[in-house]
Every structure is written in C-alpha cells, then in structure tokens.
Specification:
The structure is a single chain. This protein has three domains: 202 residues, FAD/NAD(P)-binding domain (3-Layer(bba) Sandwich), CATH 3.50.50; 146 residues, FAD/NAD(P)-binding domain, CATH 3.50.50.60; 63 residues, Orthogonal Bundle (Arc Repressor Mutant, subunit A), CATH 1.10.10. It is 35% helix and 22% strand. The protein contains 13 helices and 22 strands. The longest helix has 28 residues. About 2% of the residues have low confidence. This is FAD-dependent oxidoreductase. It comes from Saccharopolyspora aridisoli.
C-alpha cells in the first residue's frame, strides 16, 4: 500500500518523511532532481561556492530534510513530471518522448506549489520581461542576473527576496514598485502580529536592502517599451483600484523587468483528481483531505502562507495518508498531527491576512490597450475579448470564443486574468443600454 507525494518543496518533503516514519511506503515525485522546491534552489556543487548560504537562506534545514529522505528505506524518489491521472494510476514522465512510469497510488498527496501571477500590460511579451520567480531561480540556482538594470514590480512580500537575490548576483535594481499600500498591512496588523518569524524576515529583507534600491508603493509597471527587447519601463502611480493616475507616467531605462502580482497555486492535478476548488485553492478538511477521499493536499495548493505553514500541512497530510493506506492508526499519530495542526491554523490566519493585504485592484485592466496580448500562447489581444463580450453570457464562453486559455499552457498563466477581464467586460456590457 503506497503513498505517492507529488512535489518536493517544504510541504512535499515533510509529507513524504512523516508518511514513511509512520510506516508507509512512499514515492516522492518531483520534476527536479534536487529537493527543496523552486524557492530553495541552490547553486550546483560544481560552482564551488564557499558560502552558498549567503544566497540561499534556510538551505540548512532543507539539506537536513533531503539527507533524511535520501537515507530513509521506505522513500523512493522519482524525477519527472506527472503527465496525467487515470483513476488512482499516476502517469509520470521520466524522460523524453513517451518514457515514463505508471504508479498506483493508494493515497496521493498533492504538494504542487504555486507560480507567479503576472497581470498583462502592453509589451509584457517582449524579451527581457521575466516573472519574478524565474529571475529569482536564475539568480539563486545558477548565479545568473537577468539584466544589468532591472526593475522589480508587482505586489506582495515575494518582491523582497527576489530583489535581494538580484542584488546578490550584481544586478542594479533601479526600483522596486509595490502596487499595494502600507495601509493595507497596518489594517491587518492584529493578525500579522502573531507571525513574528515572518515579520522578522520581512524586516530583515528591508534592512538589508535599504540604501541599495528605491522602494515605492502604490506604483506599478503599466507598459514595457522596446524594439527587439525591453528597453524602457513605463511606470505610474496607481490609485486604490489600481488605475494609473493621470500625469504620473514616466519612463525608466532598463534591460529587464521582473514582475509578480502575488502567487497562484498549481491546480491541474487537483482538478484532474476531482478535488473541489474553493476561492482558487483546494478545499481540504482538518487532516488535509480533499473532497476526493484518497487525495490530500498541502502547501500553496491550499493557501499561500509560507514555508513553515506548508511544512506543517505536509506533516498532517503525510500522517493522514499513512492512516489512509493502513500503515498506522490515527491514535498512533494523533499527537504529532495535532501539534502540526496548531501551526497550520496559525498559517491559515496569516494566509487570509496576506490575501487581503495584497489584494489586486479591481480596475487594473485600465492600463491595457486594445492591442495588449492577454493570452500569449494563442496571441489573443484584449480587443478580441472586448469585441466578443456583448454576444456571450458568461466568462467561460467568452474565453472559449476567443481561444483564450486553449494554447500549450492550457490557461495556467492567462486563465485567471482572462476570467477577471471577461467578468468585468460582461458586467460593463450588461449595464450598457441597447443600441437603438
């Protein structure tokens, strides 16, 4: 009776280890050969860095987990991406073409993480425009700077470690623009106050970055300009609804723009497994069990709350999965599970507070032009959505009529943006009087 864990970040690693400790046979699947997840990528050993911890904070705990996983006799690792689910059979691609394995999962733990959400803007498809996560991975994992003059923009705490990693590899970060407002953070102070480790982390980033770059709030990138690649970023002040303030636009010479408007979970496998999705996340109970009884979820798939909360969710999910496959009983694992649940509940409060504090403004579409590409796979411009809106009844039909989300990424990058734009256009269309 086996437990299959997909994802080897903090949640997946902890889930695998706790399930194995409880007596289950575990297969840990991740697309990378290295454990730790995207954020915890470290430079290859061949780089010979004397002090890798300077660019990978928290790497020691990840290394400890990885060593224990590598030495555990009941954990097998498999490097490859999950191609599909067929009932309880997990199809894993382990090489080029059709090479792979089919693994039967008596219990499945999804710890698939999240990726950057990027709101489209004119010119965002130009070479030189990166997601903040991609820039961070290149800097921390390969010691590569995406540019020499870099602008970091978006919203949320992710901007801080990205900026530090870019400075660490020699980039000149000309500015960091957060479209949010400090007032939103202050309103959430009572909830955030209990998260001393996270607040100390944020303060540490700010302390190290002060003097090295310029920070601005209520500001953002509204366009990228260039011929063959980005040459300038057009920035502007934003109001509370994220509308560009007239008269505040200015151009900044750059050779790279790194953007992240928060994070969004990877839900493809959860949807394939029939899990209920609520408010953009997998709905789980207190044992991290989804609506599909043999499928558990942990980490960013259930809410964005940071590595500590993700690891706690992984611990609960791993123990519950071990109970599911009858490797142990709930009475034997109840005590450690309940300790982890306390951390999970604290993380859930933080997640809700952060979601509110970094909420995306309702009118970000006002910086779009008719020609702005909203779906890069299918090269769909914003005008195509606008033209189709009057003839459609809901967001899904509007997106399908324009082929939004039907390209190679299957809406992973553009789906949420397109849905919000479609809903906005449909509301506007419904409120307009009919043409006489």
């Amino acid at each position: 009776m086996s437990v299959v864990v997909v994802g080897a970040g903090p949640a997946g690693m902890t889930a695998a280890l706790h399930a194995a400790r409880a007596g289950a046979e575990v297969l840990l699947v991740d697309s990378s050969n290295a454990l730790g997840g995207k954020y915890n990528q470290a430079p290859p050993e061949q780089f010979g860095l004397a002090q890798p911890q300077r660019i990978r904070r928290g790497q020691r705990s990840v290394t400890t987990l990885a060593e224990e996983i590598g030495a555990h006799p009941r954990i097998r690792r498999l490097a490859g991406g999950v191609r599909s689910l067929d009932g309880r059979d997990v199809h894993v691609r382990t090489g080029s073409g059709d090479a792979g394995e089919i693994i039967h999962a008596d219990a499945l733990v999804l710890a698939t993480g999240a990726h950057d959400r990027v709101l489209p803007f004119p010119g965002w498809e130009l070479p030189g425009v990166f997601t903040a996560g991609a820039a961070h991975a290149l800097a921390s994992g390969q010691r590569i700077a995406v540019g020499s003059r870099v602008l970091v923009a978006g919203t949320g705490p992710l901007l801080l470690p990205v900026t530090e990693s870019l400075l660490g590899v020699g980039a000149d970060v000309v500015a960091v623009l957060d479209a949010g407002s400090p007032a939103a953070w202050l309103r959430r102070a009572p909830t955030l106050a209990g998260q001393w480790d996270k607040l100390a982390g944020f303060a540490g980033y700010l302390r190290r970055l002060v003097g090295n770059t310029q920070f601005r709030t209520r500001a953002g990138v509204v366009a990228a300009v260039g011929e063959e690649r980005v040459e300038e970023a057009v920035v502007a002040k934003l109001d509370a609804r994220w509308r560009p303030v007239p008269g505040t636009h200015r151009r900044i010479p750059v050779d790279a723009i790194c953007v992240a408007h928060g994070l969004q979970p990877r839900l493809e496998l959860a949807r394939a497994a029939g899990c209920d999705i609520e408010d953009g996340f997998v709905r789980v109970d207190g044992s991290q069990r989804s609506s599909t009884p043999w499928v558990f979820a942990a980490g960013e798939a259930t809410g964005i709350a940071g590595a500590r909360a993700a690891a706690a969710e992984g611990a609960v999910a791993g123990l519950a999965a071990a109970v599911q496959v009858q490797a142990t009983t709930w009475s034997e694992v109840e005590q450690p599970a309940r300790r982890a649940m306390l951390v999970v509940r604290c993380g859930q409060k933080f997640s809700r507070a952060m979601a509110s504090a970094t909420r995306i403004g309702e009118d970000w579409n006002e910086w779009l032009t008719p020609q702005t590409v909203v779906c890069r796979c299918e090269a769909v411009p914003y005008q195509a959505l606008r033209d189709s809106a009057p003839a459609q009844r809901d967001a899904s039909s509007l997106n399908l009529s324009c082929r939004v989300g039907l390209g190679s990424c299957q809406g992973r990058m553009c789906g949420r943006n397109a849905s919000e734009l479609a809903e906005n256009l449909l509301r506007t269309s419904a409120s307009e009087p009919p043409v006489a």
